[in-house]
Design a protein that fits this description.
By secondary structure, the chain is mainly α. The protein contains 18 helices and no strands. About 75% of the residues lie in helices and about 0% in strands.
Length: about 400
């Protein structure tokens, strides 16, 4: 089996942990007596865990002290165990949130370390391979919705446990694969490098980094909140009836198409450049935010076209923001700068997730207008880079 195929499939299986509880949201709401905002709290527990985990691995230097395959394997196993504990032992929000936080922390050793594994195997083809990796992250996010649609007669615990089994399979694949030959193996002997916070924040004084980062922050306001409330958006638009297989089936398909668009965007960026791809996809997803409340009165084909266009573009810009930021950051500070950017972006997503889930019952279809500031402000932040490329050939 080709190493890149193994890594991207393992990424798909491992990141299915991310939204495993969201795939059982209706059942949890009934079983635990939750409000819609409580589902936002469970989602945000994962987000916070990922933020803390990313900063811990990146800024402490731990991610460079041990082989990426070992960290990925341990984190995938632990994430699967915490996820299983959530399904089997939690009986309410107070018990469930710490376990979801632990899952998020473990995911910090799955997704970012998957990127490092890609570089260790094919550094000369990392750009295209990383687009595939992000595509698998998107598809992995959609998997819990797909599992729930396929196993509608299962207890909700079973659909969550399916994600744990996938995470264990991911761990086995990466353990067997190991690290590639293109990164030094430090064997745990490398000293942990201290990083001064002021030095990291100084990256925001670089105009190109600041523009890419602000574009990414606008993207993050929209994308995870969109994925969280997507089943409700499907219902509000009239595409499917509440609490039916169709809701989760459409949610799976709408997110999954983003994986295809992400991979296609990576290829497209070779022709027109990452800045243009990021701007176009951010603009289309923003247009979908603006049009969604009006789509309630549209025909079914028009509704589906809008939702699939939204799902296709809402996450496809993410790898391009990372690429632009990495290019602009000082070479000796790229990893820490990207870790800081990701941490801020996920913190922003926590605000939009909680806000959207708290008010969706009152806002109805107009909830999409609460997501709209993300793409708009992202485009404004990205504008200096857009203007720079307006009269330049793609690069």
């Amino acid at each position: 089996m080709h190493p890149i195929f193994s890594i991207v499939i393992a990424q798909l299986f491992g990141t299915s942990l991310w939204f495993s509880a969201n795939g059982a949201a209706d059942d949890l709401t009934r079983a635990w007596g939750l409000a819609p905002g409580d589902i936002g709290l469970l989602t945000n527990a994962v987000q916070l865990g990922f933020i803390i985990g990313t900063l811990t691995f990146s800024l402490s230097g731990l991610a460079d002290r041990f082989e990426a395959s070992k960290i990925f394997t341990v984190c995938a196993v632990l994430g699967g165990l915490f996820n299983a504990a959530f399904a089997l032992t939690a009986h309410g929000l107070s018990a469930g949130m710490p376990l979801r936080f632990a899952v998020g922390f473990c995911l910090a050793g799955v997704y970012p370390l998957g990127m490092k594994l890609i570089v260790s195997w094919v550094p000369d083809k990392a750009g295209a391979a990383l687009s595939q990796l992000l595509g698998m992250l998107i598809l992995g996010t959609s998997l819990p919705y797909g599992i729930r649609a396929a196993g509608s007669s299962w207890p909700w615990q079973a659909s969550i446990l399916a994600s744990s089994l996938l995470a264990f399979a991911a761990a086995a694949m990466i353990w067997r694969l190991g690290d590639g030959p293109h990164l030094p193996r430090n064997g745990g002997k490398r000293a942990v490098r201290s990083v001064r916070a002021g030095h990291i924040f100084s990256c925001f004084s670089i105009p190109q980094f600041r523009a890419a980062a602000f574009g990414y922050f606008g993207h993050m306001w929209e994308v995870y909140a969109f994925w969280t409330i997507l089943p409700a958006l499907v219902v509000l638009s009239g595409i499917a009836a509440p609490a039916t297989n169709g809701v989760y089936g459409y949610a799976f398909a709408i997110i999954a198409i983003g994986a295809v668009c992400s991979i296609a965007g990576g290829a497209w960026s070779k022709r027109i450049g990452s800045i243009r791809v990021a701007a176009i996809t951010l603009g289309i997803s923003g247009l979908c935010c603006a049009l969604y409340p009006f789509s309630v009165a549209w025909s079914m084909p028009a509704k589906l076209l809008l939702m699939f266009a939204w799902g296709a573009t809402v996450a496809a810009d993410s790898p391009h923001f990372s690429a632009l930021s990495a290019k602009a950051a000082p070479p000796d500070n790229v990893g820490s700068a990207l870790a800081l950017q990701n941490a801020i972006g996920f913190a922003i997503s926590m605000v939009s997730i909680q806000l959207c889930t708290a008010v969706i019952e009152h806002a109805g279809s107009r909830i999409s207008w609460l997501l709209l500031p993300g793409p708009l402000l992202g485009l404004i932040g990205l504008m200096p880079l857009i203007l720079r490329t307006r009269f330049q050939p793609a690069s």
